[in-house]
What we know:
- The chain has 133 residues and is of the alpha+beta class.
- Helix content is 20%, strand content 33%.
- Strands 1-2-5-4-3-6 form a six-stranded antiparallel barrel.
- The mean pLDDT is 86.
Amino acid sequence: MEATALKGKVIRGADRGKDLGFPTANLDIPSQDLPKTGVYAVWVRIQGEQRWRPGAAHVGFNLTFGEKTKRLEIYLLEFSGDLYGKTLEVVPVRHLRPEKRYRTAAALIRQMHKDCRRAARVLASKRSSLKKI
């Protein structure tokens, strides 16, 4: 997935991310165009902006909640606002870990905090990768 840009419109999901404290942008991208499942550190550009923002992405099936559709969800590390209907460009920088099913939502939330901290560290060390985009 690294260095291959993905582009898609933000669509409504199950709104579970908001409830977990991590509002995600679900992108409308055909599942066959998505990379292998897992969590990634990503750069994200919002339609109409020049700035690239740091984020964490999940590609997969939301195993903890028993979903059957492979999707791409993005959590922007430095953003608050409404993205519905906007197009996001996503550039993966590093695969952080494989997808995993958690026994409880609390366990998933703890892991999401770790994933976001790791994504932030990876992206801080890869700021120069923005020059290649």
